[in-house]
Fold each of these.
Amino acid sequence: QVQLVESGGGLVQPGGSLGLSCAASGSILSMEVMGWYRQASGKSRELVAKMGSGGSTYYVDSVKGRFTISRDNAKNTVYLQMSSLKPEDTAVYFCNVYWSGRSYWGQGTQVTVSS
């Protein structure tokens, strides 16, 4: 079993920056895919960024150049650094990992971009 705990969400002004963390109970070295999704109120969950165990990354077009996914293997933690935030980025952000044939989700952390 894998437990994921997100942190770092909050209220930020447009144009500001925010960093999210996802701490995993197991070693992320054994996790094939690590990613971040978001879900705005009343909308479907959307893939924001993902990273394969080999280091390849993917970003949805709307966040390219603004968001960066990274990891710290020693700390079993995945990060999402967000900059130049827009009101459209407001959503609950979820950490996700694929491990041993299963997909695991964190509880989510709220990010609100507003002045």
Note: The chain has a mean pLDDT of 94.
Amino acid sequence: QVQLVESGGGLVQPGGSLRLSCATSRIIFSRYVMGWYRQAPGKRRELVATSTGSLATYADSVKGRFTISRDNGRNTVYLLMNNLKPDDTAVYYCNADGGAYDYTYWGQGTQVTVSS
């Protein structure tokens, strides 16, 4: 079955960096809009970034600090997070959107905690 597996989360100090990875299986990766979402305790899941491969979008809260990228050869999407803030603490989820030709798939999430 289609799988999205996130990794790279952990505990970092404010101002630190992390790179999240999302490895996909059983999809034609280049045909999907890839995205990262996050959900903090007591809050709704929010969109962080998306990538079509040619265009990237970011939430205002992370713009200038986070970078989404994708490696079609490895079928993997990344989220480089710099200058992390405590408000970035959340479970981060990978998403693959197949649009009209396939379903939307989700990973299991990876915890990012930003604390001193």
Note: The CA atoms of residues 30 and 72 lie 6 Å apart.
